[in-house]
Amino acid sequence: MKSTSIRVFGLSVLFVFAALVYAQAQPKSPKMTANGKVGDANITIEYSSPSANGREIWGGLVPYGKVWRAGANNATTFETDKDIMVGGNKLAKGKYSIYIIPNEKDWQVIFNKEVGQWGINRDGTSTRKPESDVFIVKTTPTAADMQESLSYAVAGDSFTIAWEKLKASVPLK
Predict the structure, then answer these.
(1) Could you tell me the sign of the dihedral formed by the alpha carbons of 26, 45, 137, 117, in that order?
(2) Signal peptide location in the record (predicted)?
């Protein structure tokens, strides 16, 4: 009788421990994908979507004037299966990392040919290598309704990034 109670107790403790480990292993910034078409081109943006959680995002968590990996975890990627125009610049079919330098009045959206990097070093600096930049597009963020989690969308003639109380669009053709 005693050994059965000990086994049940041991299994219960093991179950609770496994549940806690599983809960801790879940990403706080889930992986997301935005898909869309621009003409005949299929566009895929892969990113990890952090939440605001009451934090000031622009000029706070994401400082103005510094390179940001445009999401959480791995650097955000942008893929097109055909050549397209992005903000007046030709982007050859392929996969690219996106970085953003946000400022109060405008943002610089950087297309970089290196992919697969974490996006940030241990000291908080970006893993972006400027010599691998394909081009930079400037855009102006606008006020928006509160967006708790970072989101990207591809729609018709642009892709949009929205988070907290700002959104910005980059023209696609």
Answers:
(1) positive
(2) 1-25
Ranges of each domain in the chain:
29-171
Residue (of 50, 87, 88) closest to 72 by Cα position:
50
Q: Given this model, what pLDDT does residue 117 score?
A: 87
Q: Which residues make beta-bridge pairs with 170? A: 159
How far is 50 from 108, CA to CA, in rounded Å? Answer: 20
Q: What distance in Å separates the CA atoms of residue 43 and residue 91, rounded to the nearest whole number?
A: 12
Question: What is the Cα–Cα distance from 105 to 15, expressed in whole angstroms?
Answer: 52
pLDDT of residue 49: 97
pLDDT at 6: 62
**Span 87-99, average pLDDT:** 98
**Chain centroid to CA 57:** 14
Q: How far from the centroid of its chain's Cα atoms is residue 4's Cα?
A: 50
Tens digit of each residue's pLDDT (9 = 90 or more) over 11-52: 554 454 544 444 444 458 999 999 999 999 999 999 999 999
Q: Which residues contact 106 (CB under 8 A, 6 or more apart)?
A: 138, 139, 140, 141
CA pair distance 91, 136, nearest whole angstrom: 11
Distance CA 111, CA 130 (A): 10
Looking at residue 27, its pLDDT comes to 56
